[in-house]
Design goal:
Elements lengths: L6 H11 L4 H8 L3 H15 L4 H10 L27
Helix pairs in contact: 1-2, 1-4, 2-3
Length: about 90
């Protein structure tokens, strides 16, 4: 069975893989840090990961995140193209 994660969870996962802190992810998503922590705990559980590092490693292994730190899935749930560039 394929792992089912939401576009928001995938976006958050890519941000973590890009080195964002929980606070950075919260700011990018426009939600409270506490909500982000809940989202990440749910995501880690779905991945079967105990830690942030393990979650990122599993996400890379499953092709859920890009190794290119300048690309990420758009938060609107669309499909990112290879040329998508993250703006800070």
């Amino acid at each position: 069975m394929a792992l089912q994660i939401t576009p928001t969870e995938r976006h958050a996962l890519q941000l973590l893989a890009n080195g964002y802190t929980t606070n950075d992810v919260a700011t990018d998503l426009g939600i409270a840090t506490v909500e982000t922590e809940v989202l990440l705990k749910r995501l880690f559980a779905a991945l079967g990961a105990a830690t942030r590092v393990e979650a990122i490693a599993l996400a890379h292994k499953r092709g859920l995140v890009s190794a290119d730190q300048n690309s990420y899935p758009p938060h609107d749930g669309g499909v990112a193209s290879a040329g998508t560039v993250m703006k800070h």
